[in-house]
Structures are given as structure tokens and as C-alpha cells.
């Protein structure tokens, strides 16, 4: 599981001899910084690979929520197509209202983590915005993550959205 280093002090435990084993295999390009004494020290902001992993994970969850709403609508349309006399208005209203409530609850639940992640990066990396971080690190994010970040109040410029897919 990825982590965000949030403590500004150097880690005082000696650097383990098997440090490479502590880096998750999914992220082989990550290196840990050390000072002249060999102590691990924090990075100024989240490593790009971790940001990308978090953004991709939240983006996929956001897309899945949107897809679920679309599937609910399609299912209701199919019910109407099979039997137009079904009192679909009541069913449709109840199901869609509940589905939209679940979707909006998801967005509300991730708003604080998304804002906190972006604020952490801006503050710790001394960036003007999340877009400056993305630019400096050469990161492109999915459209789903950009949409979610925008809904959470931290919009990402289209320059940093991967146009080759979500």
C-alpha cells in the first residue's frame, strides 16, 4: 500500500541493510533519500508514482460510480421496453434518487482526502498549485481523476489530462 510521508523530521532509525525490500515491487523506480549520516529523510512532497497510484485508484472508483448510474438507467429503460404499463415512474424515481444519493455521498466522502492530498503537495513542495506539481513532475492523470478533483474543488488543467484514455 502506498504511503505519504508527512513527518518533516529525519527518521532516526538506522537505514536497514535490506532497504530495497521495503519498496513495494509495483513501484521499482522509487528511491529513498538519505542525508550524509545515512538517515532516511522525507521527500518534499509525495513521490509522483504514489500520486499517480492514488489518482488512478480514486479515478477508477469515480468512473465505476458513474458507470453504475448509467447501468441503472439502462436497466430501467429495458424494464419499460418490456412492459410499458409498469408503473415505472415510481420505480425509476426511487431507484435513481437512491443511486444519485450514493454517488454524491461517494464524492462527499472523498472530497477531504482529495483536497488534503493536493494541499499537502502544494504546501510541502512549495508549489503554487497542483498543476505546477503535475507540470514539474511530468504527470498526466486520467480524465476521471481530473473530473473528481474538479468536483472536490481542486481542478486540474486539461494540459495534465491524458487524452489517450481515462
Structure, explained:
By secondary structure, this protein is mostly helical. The chain is 54% helix and 0% strand. The radius of gyration is 21 Å and the shape is elongated. Helix 1 runs antiparallel to helix 2 and helix 1 (48-82) crosses helix 4. It has 2 domains: 1-43, no CATH class; 44-160, no CATH class.
Q: Tags for this entry?
A:
166 residues, mainly alpha, 2 domains, 0% strand
Number of domains: 2
> What proportion strand?
under 5%
Following the backbone from N to C, one meets helices and strands in this order, namely: HHHH
Termini Cα gap: 22 Å
User: Describe the biggest sheet?
Assistant: none
Total number of helices? 4
Mean pLDDT: 74
Q: Which geometry do the CA atoms define?
A: elongated
Given as residue ranges, the uncertain stretches (5+ residues, pLDDT < 50) are 1-31
Total strand count, please? 0
Radius of gyration: 21 Å
Helix content: 40-55%
Structural class: mainly alpha
Secondary-structure map:
Blueprint lengths: L47 H35 L5 H38 L4 H8 L5 H9 L15
Question: Quick gist of this model?
Answer:
This protein has 166 residues and is mainly alpha-helical.
